[in-house]
């Protein structure tokens, strides 16, 4: 079995791949001080809850937070006895030649994330509470929480819609828009241009990269 780990700025996702399907996907908050033992305690407890007895033979890691990679490497070596493939390292080959400096895509757009925006709003105005991201009943709120939720939800619907429309116009080629990530199903309720939702897009990508590197290693042997 393959354990795919994707570490983002907010959450770290662990998925167990049996070669055909993901047996389970687990999420925890990203924290650079979390030790290998803490990862294992959390991981083994949840896997046991799902009734899975994983036989992890390989691990692949992608991360936008470099400081967490060391402890994830220790976690992998100590508890699974294997050396992980780390995307972005020189010994990790990519099946698609990169066309930008930092990745394998033609290009992109970077904007503040939803949770980051909510945290900034709360930090800049102490009187404003923390709120959950949800689709409000109506655009115009009648209390502080409703107003914040409406601003964040419909603000990001407008942001994504606007960027997608401009990319389509600029690229002048047919393209599909795939919603991915934990909040994609939520924002799909907001009349976005998603053609479909793919929650496990990153994890599927990691399985492809792992298979490509495994094949290359076997060829070298």
Plain-language structure description:
The protein is an alpha/beta fold. The chain has 2 domains: about 1-90 and about 200-220, Nucleotidyltransferase, domain 5, CATH 3.30.420; about 115-175, ATPase, nucleotide binding domain (Nucleotidyltransferase, domain 5), CATH 3.30.420. It has helices at about 35-50, 65-80, 115-125, 145-170, 185, 200-220; strands at about 1-5, 10-15, 20-30, 60-65, 85, 180, 195. Strands 3-2-1-4-5 form a 5-stranded mixed β-sheet, with helices on both faces. Strands 6-7 form a two-stranded parallel sheet. It starts with a strand and ends with a helix. The model has no long low-confidence stretch (mean pLDDT about 85).
Q: What is the second-level CATH architecture of the largest domain?
A: 2-Layer Sandwich
Shape: globular
CATH superfamily of the largest domain, by name, is ATPase, nucleotide binding domain
Structure annotation, total helices: 6
Strand order of the largest sheet: 3-2-1-4-5
User: Which structural class is indicated by helix and strand composition?
Assistant: alpha/beta
- Please tell me the overall pLDDT: 86
Largest sheet: 5 strands, mixed
- What would CATH call the class of the largest domain? Alpha Beta
Low-confidence segments, given as residue ranges, are none
CATH topology of the largest domain: Nucleotidyltransferase, domain 5
Number of structural units classed as domains: 2
- Distance from N terminus to C terminus (CA atoms, Å) equals 22 Å
Q: What percent of residues adopt helix (DSSP H or I)?
A: 40-55%
Q: Total number of β-strand segments?
A: 7
Taking Cα atoms only, what radius of gyration do you get, to the nearest Å?
20 Å
Strand content is 5-15%
